[in-house]
Amino acid sequence: MKKSTKIMSAAAVGALLLTGGTTFVANAGTSPAAPAAKPAADVLIAASNAVPQNRISVGASAKAVGAALEKCQADKLPFVTVALVDRFGTVQAILRGDNAAEHTIEAAKAKAYTAAAFGAPTSELAKRIQGNGPSIADLPGTLFLPGGVPLKVNGVSVAGIGVGGAPDGMLDEACAAAGAAALIK
User: What are the tens digits of pLDDT across the range 44-57?
Assistant: First the structure.
């Protein structure tokens, strides 16, 4: 009998250790002695540590992509997509023309980003690609084909407008330029 009592006691102790360990794990990190984290909203930084950012407004973005698509439609190119992105490549406005294929969406975004990031029309940037080795054309998200135009404020690129889908990149770029010109007026 003593032997079975010892076995039961060992089993009971094992169960207590197991449940105690589970309770310890469940309560880990909830110690009332741990200091509360300060909410991020209470942390203020000096304005000199922030970078001001210029962006194209939503109204201007819509106006630019509309003007670019209008130009393409007037040129009998209804199957293009127009994209306007900020200088980081985030889409601000996109307008897909009638019968525009899926690939035109990505092409328009990539051309717009390339123009914004490099601050030059993609037709000019395409001329810089030379040789067979690695080049700027290998950078992710870029497309060095005509059709992208940078949008600048005080000489600094803040966005780009790109068009994809015309049978010639210079036709795409003429539409993108019309979209950019709509913001000058």
Answer: 888 899 888 889 99
